[in-house]
Structure formats: C-alpha cells, structure tokens
Design goal:
The protein is of the alpha/beta class and 393 residues long. 33% of the residues lie in helices and 24% in strands. The protein binds nickel (II) ion.
Length: 393
C-alpha cells in the first residue's frame, strides 16, 4: 500500500490550502490567521480543537473507532514563516512584504491537516491521535513553549513524530535515522575587560585586544583537543567588536559566536570548556572577562527502538523499500522538535522534495514547497497512525 487513494483524491484541496498559507505568511507567535485556518479545518473534519496553548498553537484530538483506549501518539507540524523577502513571482507568492514561507512549514501544516481529514473520515485505528500545530519553530522556540505549557500532560502521547521536507533529496525519498539528526545551537557573548589608554604607552594599559586574541586562539583547541575525534562539534566566533581609533587601546572587547553539537554530552563539554577559557585566560594578563551563554535549541535526537522501527516500517510501506534511506548524515542546522523528543520517545524524518539543483534550498528567496510530495507525506502520517495504533484483529 503506497500512497493512500483517498488522500490522492483530495490532493487538489491540499494544494489550495498550502498555497493559501504560502500567500499569507506569519512569523513567530503571530500565526493568527494560520492558526484560525488550521482550527477551522479541524472543526470542519469533526475533530476536537484546543487553541489555548503557546499563544497561536493548536492541538486537534481524534479518537479512533471505539473511543479512547489509553494509547496515544502525537504528530507535529510547524506553522511559522521567515522574516525574508520572497523572490518568486508565481500567483501564490507571499502577499506580505518581508515575510515568506521559505522553509516549507506551509507544506508541513497542510500535510498534517490532510492526515487529519483522512483519519477523521476513516478512524481506522484504536486510541488517540493528537495533531500538534506549533508556532515559532524558526528560532523563537514555540515547541519549547508548548512543552512548558503542558503539551504532554494535557495531551498524553506515548510517542511523538515530526517531519521536514528536504530539498537535497529527490521527491519520493524519505530519510529515517536513529540518534542525532539535527544539531543543538547555542549563542554566546564574551566581554573582555581591559584598561584603555594611549597606544604608544601600552605599559600603562591592559590591552583587551591581546587578551581577546588569546581567548580566540584557546577556543580553537576545544573541538580539536577536548572532544573525541569521532564526535562532532563547532565553536565559531563570528563577531569581534573593539576600538575606535588608530592610537587608542580600548577599554573592552566584545566577542560573539555560536556553538553547535549533535549530542547533549558534547554540548555540555563545549559550554564548560568555553566558560573555563573565558574565566582563566584573562587572569594571566591581569584582567577578567565575562560570558553570557544562551542555550538555544538542544540537539534533535531520534530515539531507537519502537518509534524508529515504526517510522522505518511505515516509510518503507508508503515510499517503497528502495526509497527509504538510513545512511544520511545529520545536519548541523537546528530544529525545536528537539524539545518534544526530550519529553517523549519519537522520530523525526526528512521527506525528499527536490529542487536543490534550482537553488530551491530551505531559506532561499526562491524556495517553494513542492506540492507533488503532499500525498506521500500525508500517507506517511495516516499510515503511521494506523500502524502505531492498530485495531484489534
Ligand atoms: Ni523548517
């Protein structure tokens, strides 16, 4: 059973919904019309709707034939767009200046709506499915807020599943992966204190630029000397701010940058070593520095066991054995589905959408979600529910 016929029958409807959302992009926690649209569709399908979570978040609750059984799973889609100008000129291009669905969340929302419609019609499963429509995936942590506002206590889920379109893969392919699939991403700002003065009289100053240079150099040893060569990690210092004149040693240097890691252990280690360098290196020069380390999204780590086996089995069923890849490396990008995977076992897959050869990569101004992949993505969701929550034989 590859694509579900009934889903293919309403492909045209889904294309219309997707393009409607694409034309009307809304960003972090301002997905007012999008969430209204989602809630309206869910109600139309006869699904119980909850709208009082994470601002614009929406959860739809549907029981299979025979009502609740105590078993439940969650399926999650993100609804937000990006703050960027769309360069496309087709009819459904963004009507909102400076905002664009450049990551395909319009498609993710639509595919989950499509699955909701099919499952509400057929209810060929036993238990409960929670359709989780989250706001603010692009940096503002809507997934984290849903979890903090009791997503899994209000809507219990034994397992939770996510999906993202992937332009690097051709349409028809699905990547399933055990372990890390996306990186954790943190930010930091370091303030190096000095004692300013005349550049010709450096002995009367404490030069924060020299100290900052030593911090930058020492930082390079963390990934190369402190983490195992088998593991992955990044510390990049991306901003250096200091000074205003040729002949003045400044009072202060500000360094900013980002930390990426694929495991919680490496992330902890990178933060600990970076803090240690910032605390100790300036002391040898008779000065001090402070660090403001802000944790962003944790690594997105897929669980092994049941959720991975389910995702693999269902992907093979809908896409065909040869179209399911399990040997693709993780991405150093970040994803706030990570917060849900920290709470519940689950799995996040990539669905090929093609277009990378045309420059149609995620966050590119010419990007557009590929409507052709909707029957596959929607069939994956529907089959996942029917497989994870089977009716008694
Ligand atoms: Ni995205």
């Amino acid at each position: 059973m590859p694509i579900i016929n009934r889903i293919a029958e309403f492909h045209a409807d889904m294309t219309e919904w997707r393009r409607h959302i694409h034309e009307n992009p809304e960003t972090a926690f301002e997905e007012f019309k999008t969430s209204e649209f989602v809630a309206g569709k869910l109600k139309e399908f006869g699904i119980e709707v909850h709208r009082d979570i994470a601002g614009t978040g929406v959860v739809g609750v549907l029981h299979g034939e025979g009502g609740p059984t105590g078993r439940a799973i969650g399926l999650r889609a993100d609804m937000d767009a990006l703050n960027m100008e769309e360069a496309n000129s087709f009819a459904h291009a963004s009507k909102v200046p400076g905002k664009m669905h450049g990551c395909g969340h319009d498609g993710h929302t639509t595919m989950l709506l499509g699955a909701a419609r099919y499952l509400a019609e057929t209810r060929n499963f036993a238990g409960t499915v929670n359709f989780i429509f989250q706001p603010a995936e692009e940096g503002a942590g809507g997934g984290r807020r849903m979890v903090e506002e009791g997503l899994f206590t209000r809507f219990p889920c034994d397992m939770v599943f996510g999906m993202h379109n992937w332009p690097d893969l051709p349409p028809g392919q699905i990547v399933v992966k055990e372990g890390p699939i996306m990186a954790g991403a943190d930010q930091f700002e370091i303030k190096v204190a000095g004692k300013g003065g005349h550049a010709a009289l450096p002995h009367h100053t404490i030069d924060p630029i020299v100290i900052a240079a030593h911090i930058i150099t020492a930082t390079q040893t963390v990934v190369s000397r402190n983490i195992s060569p088998i593991e992955s990690g990044v510390i990049s210092i991306t901003q250096v701010h200091a000074g205003s004149a040729y002949n003045v040693i400044p009072e202060e240097v500000i360094l900013r940058g980002t930390v990426r890691a694929l495991s919680h252990e490496v992330r902890e280690l990178l933060e600990k070593r970076l803090r240690h360098i910032v605390e100790t290196v300036p002391v040898t020069f008779g000065s001090t520095a402070t660090i403001n380390y802000r944790r962003g999204y944790p690594p997105t780590v897929n669980h092994g066991g049941a959720p991975h086996e389910l995702a693999t089995q269902v992907a093979r069923k809908v896409a065909g054995e040869d179209n399911v890849l399990n040997n693709v490396g993780p991405s150093m990008g970040a994803e706030d589905f990570a917060f849900m995977l920290q709470e519940r076992p689950g799995s996040y897959v990539w669905v090929g959408q093609g277009g990378s050869e045309l420059g149609c990569l995620l966050h590119n101004p010419r990007y557009d979600f590929n409507d052709d992949i909707m029957p596959l993505g929607t069939s994956y969701w529907a089959t996942l529910v029917e497989t994870a929550l089977p009716k008694a034989a």
